[in-house]
Structures are given as C-alpha cells and as structure tokens.
Amino acid sequence: MTGTDKPHRGTIFAEDGDVVSHEVLPADQFVLRLHAPYCAESATPGSFAHIQCDPLLPMRRPLSIMRANPEQGTVDFLYKVVGTGTRLLATRKTGDTVNLLGPIGKPFQPNREYPRPLLMGGGVGIPPMVFLAETLKQNDHWKPLVLMGSEIPFPFQSQPSHILMPGMPEGTIATLPLLEDWGVPCRLTSLQGYPGCYDGYITGLARTWLDALTSEQRDEIEIFACGPEPMLAAVTDLAVDYDLPCQVSLEEYMACAVGGCAGCTVRVETDAGPAMKRVCVDGPVFDARSVFGVNSKTC
C-alpha cells in the first residue's frame, strides 16, 4: 500500500487476481474480469490498475477499470491489443492468475450543483464512462447522458435505443445495450457509417444536443471525458464555448504507475503557475482547462 499523503493513494493494493472470464470482442478487443477483492472494494470511476500481462514481461500496462463489484470482488477491464503486452494478456484463460496494482489515481468527482452530467468516451476512453454511468445511476439526483465514439467496431453489439432524447439528430438511435438496460440514455458516433450512429465527431453530436437545450438546462451540465488527446482538446473547446465545467481523464505511457518514476508527467496550469503533474497519481483526472487551456482548437 502507498503512503497516505493523498487520500486516493492510500488504497493501492498489490494482489493476484484470478481470471473469472475473458471475452473476445471484434477488432482485437477483450473484456477481462478478475477476482481482485481489494481492488474492487476501493475502485472509483476514473481509477485504473497496473496489470502484469505475463510473468516473463517485466513492464506492466495501465488499464482503466470499466466496472467494479465489491460484493463479488470482481473488476472488469476493456482493452484492445496494440502491442506485446496486451497481446500476451489476451492469451490468459479462465483460472489463470494475473497480478495487478490498483486501484490507482484521482477519480472523476461529480459536483451535485450540476445534476445533468454529460459523459463522453472515445475508443479506449469508453470504459471509465461505463463505470461513471453505473455509479451515477444509483442516485436519482443525477440525469446523465453518455456519448461514445469509435472508428473501429464498438466493443459491444449496439441496438436501437427506446429512451427518447430530445435534441438528437434524426436517425441517431444506436446505444450500448448495458446502459439501455440501466435506463441511462446513450448515443453512439462514428465516421464509419455504422447503423444508427451519428455521422461525425463526438463533439459535433454534443454541440447539436447542447444547442437544443434551454439556458437553464445547460446551467445544470458538467462534462466528463476520456479518450485520445485530440478528442479531449476538442471537448475542452466545447466546454469553453458553452461555459461548462469539464473533467478529463488523460492517457499516458507509464512505467511504475505509482508516482516514483515521473515518466508520465504533463504540464498543468495551477493557481501558482504552470507545474508538471504525474498522470498516474496526480491524475489521471484533471480539470480540462488546466491541461488544454482555452485555445486548444485542434479538430
């Protein structure tokens, strides 16, 4: 366990997790479920685990937590095979043991002043949005909307949504079945022509929806986002244009993932001026404007 100088760093555990299931999805994507009760007990939306992909591979890989079930002691990870580590991880079978450090990182922190959270996940940024949506749905105070974008096949079989969402373009009806079952409205975006998806960037769909709201409704919105850096920069622009609070979860290469190596630092604007912050333990969630500023126009 780490020191307790920061609350979210006092609950990092090292444990051997048993593989409960390992689902193969399109486009070399997988959902790994581990029985890791210590991690499951303390996981929060936005936190991640540092996974040992293979006993012979010394460097771990950071994976966002998609779901956590403290009662069953399980944590779920959605990942895509992109290199040696994740390729080796994809070979792990039910009953195997996977060592992990977690949960790590500063999570998303919804403000009750904004009861209409707008969750935006792109590609590998989808898992934290699922976790956050599942957490928010447990309290009637929150009325979240989830937008997800992908330029490869989505890691689930989309379906037409039966949850009416005023302000959505005609024909934009594709949703994630899990969120639909929870009663959480969700819409999908892509440039690949997938049925029922919005044909464009995730920020384009968000702008269309925001424009359809009243000023009173927009005043209730806080944005949460995770995805590739160009997407997060564009989401920051969106937040600035509509004067909305916004939290983003960053993706960086990590060696130790517990703050020792400082290999995942990013420049962040603070009240005291610019500073270098470690994504692993000072983040991965940051205020969007502190990272991307107000002139981040990229796409």
Description:
The chain is of the alpha/beta class and 299 residues long. The protein has 2 domains: 98 residues, Translation factors (Elongation Factor Tu (Ef-tu), domain 3); 136 residues, Nucleotide-binding domain of ferredoxin-NADP reductase (FNR) module (Rossmann fold), CATH 3.40.50.80. The chain is 20% helix and 31% strand. The chain has 8 helices and 18 strands. The strands form 4 sheets. The protein has a 7-stranded antiparallel beta sheet. α5 packs parallel to α7. The N and C termini lie far apart (41 Å). The N terminus and C terminus are likely disordered.
List descriptors.
disordered N terminus, disordered C terminus, alpha/beta, seven-stranded mixed β-sheet, Elongation Factor Tu (Ef-tu), domain 3, 299 residues, Rossmann fold, seven-stranded antiparallel β-sheet, 8 helices, 2 domains
How large is the count of helical segments?
8
- Please indicate the percent range of residues in DSSP E strands (runs of 2 or more): 25-35%
Which term fits the overall shape?
A: globular
- The CATH homologous superfamily of the largest domain corresponds to Nucleotide-binding domain of ferredoxin-NADP reductase (FNR) module
Radius of gyration: 19 Å
Mean pLDDT across residues:
92
In the residues, how many domains can be counted? 2
What is the CA–CA distance across the termini? 41 Å
Main CATH class of the largest domain: Alpha Beta
CATH architecture of the largest domain: 3-Layer(aba) Sandwich
Number of strands: 18
Structural class: alpha/beta
Main sheet overview: 7 strands, antiparallel
